[in-house]
């Protein structure tokens, strides 16, 4: 118990420190986007991120389902089972990367539907291809990150990500001031996560020394059945989440224009910073919840859920009030008064933020306890 609590505390503290240090980078990034590349470029990046989040449904929640199966072998230090699961994970994600790349290429001819007059912005198709490659390459190494989370070592990922983000941001600022090149800026921005995942992979391979060549066994029929059941449930969770939050920029661009998407994206930067902080704090305890699910009974788990939900509720209320009453001042100081949205729009953004994040802790428990297979009944 002491070991689990100690690890959870370390992860939460590391996450808080890293989040505080890293959140200014998103505001700096948006500032240079707007002032050196224009609000149209900002709208394009938000639109492309939305499109690629829809394409990323191709993973069907497989990663979450496999991570759930890692908690027990990690608790038993069963290297054979961990290696088998990670080999499945790696193979499936490579296939998914190919599928997303193919779908992304097929989407390119239809970008005109969303871009309208912004189709004349320089290199719109090349910028989309850069974002597509950033998404595709992330699937080649991101599975290693999940092993750290399952093993309650996610603070390692946080520190690596912090260092990489600061280094890449320095390069972005230098290059955008010197060249004002949207393609170069997109490359440095998109591949930040790829570089992070690359370093994480080096660390995981060195720490765990998984022998992919030595263990050639396959999962049993019962294990594959359990995996499939959770994948189906996670698929419905992902679909519902993407439909609600992953298509807003696409719809806004299709019915208005990319510039309006850029204005909206500025507010999303604020909400995303808050959401990432909440996600990381809650996610930092996911490995501990997984360990808890192995060692404790359902009544103790239910008690833990209610305690964490109270904490989540307090943080969420404070966050929503801040969005409604402070975002105007933040936008004005950060970018200028002309980028401020009407009060009704801000209220709706805060309301959407509340409903989406109130369920965050519940999603974590569903993933950890392998309950995703039941979610299709409620979606």
Mean pLDDT: 82
For the record, give the distance between the C-alpha atoms at the N and C termini, rounded to a whole number.
36 Å
- Amount of helix: over 70%
Shape designation: globular
Low-confidence stretches: none
Instruction: State the major sheet.
Output: none
In N-to-C order, the SSE pattern is HHHHHHHHHHHHHHHHHH
Instruction: Give the C-alpha Rg.
Output: 21 Å
Structural class: mainly alpha
Number of strands: 0
Number of helices: 18
Beta-strand residue fraction: under 5%
Task: Name its key features.
379 residues, mainly alpha, 18 helices, globular
Question: What does this entry look like structurally?
Answer:
- The chain is an all-alpha fold.
- The chain has 18 helices and no strands.
- Helix 13 runs antiparallel to helix 15.
- The longest helix has 37 residues, at 298-334.
- The radius of gyration is 21 Å and the shape is globular.
- The model has no long low-confidence stretch (mean pLDDT 82).
């Amino acid at each position: 118990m002491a070991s689990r609590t100690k690890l959870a505390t370390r992860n939460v503290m590391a996450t808080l420190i890293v989040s505080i240090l890293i959140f200014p980078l998103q505001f700096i990034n948006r500032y240079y986007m707007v002032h050196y590349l224009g609000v149209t470029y900002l709208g394009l990046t938000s639109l492309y991120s939305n499109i690629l989040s829809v394409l990323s449904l191709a993973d069907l929640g497989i990663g979450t389902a496999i991570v759930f199966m890692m908690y027990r072998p990690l608790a038993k230090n069963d290297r054979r089972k961990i290696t088998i699961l990670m080999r499945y994970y790696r193979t499936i994600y490579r296939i998914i990367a190919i599928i997303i790349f193919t779908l992304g290429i097929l989407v390119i001819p239809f970008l005109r539907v969303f871009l309208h007059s912004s189709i004349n912005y320089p290199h719109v198709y090349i910028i989309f291809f850069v974002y597509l490659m950033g998404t595709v390459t992330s699937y080649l190494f991101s599975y290693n990150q999940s092993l750290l989370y399952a093993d309650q070592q996610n603070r390692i990922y946080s520190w690596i990500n912090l260092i990489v983000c600061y280094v890449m941001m320095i390069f972005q600022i230098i290059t955008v001031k010197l060249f004002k090149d949207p393609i170069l800026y997109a490359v440095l921005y998109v591949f930040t996560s790829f570089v992070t995942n690359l370093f994480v992979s080096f660390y995981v391979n060195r720490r765990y020394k998984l022998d992919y060549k030595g263990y050639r066994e396959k999962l049993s029929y019962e294990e594959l059945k359990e995996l499939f059941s959770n994948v189906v449930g996670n698929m419905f969770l992902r679909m519902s989440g993407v439909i609600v939050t992953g298509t807003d920029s696409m719809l806004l661009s299709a019915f208005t224009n990319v510039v309006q998407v850029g204005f909206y994206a500025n507010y999303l930067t604020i909400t995303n910073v808050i959401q990432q902080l909440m996600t990381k704090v809650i996610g930092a305890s996911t490995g501990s919840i997984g360990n808890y699910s192995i060692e404790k009974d359902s009544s103790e788990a239910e008690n833990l859920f209610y305690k964490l939900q109270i904490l989540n509720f307090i943080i969420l209320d404070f966050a929503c009030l801040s969005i409604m009453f402070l975002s105007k001042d933040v936008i004005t100081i950060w970018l200028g008064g002309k980028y401020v949205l009407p009060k009704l729009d801000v209220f709706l953004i805060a309301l959407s933020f509340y409903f989406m994040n109130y369920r965050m802790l519940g999603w974590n428990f569903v993933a950890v306890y392998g309950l995703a297979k039941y979610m299709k009944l409620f979606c």
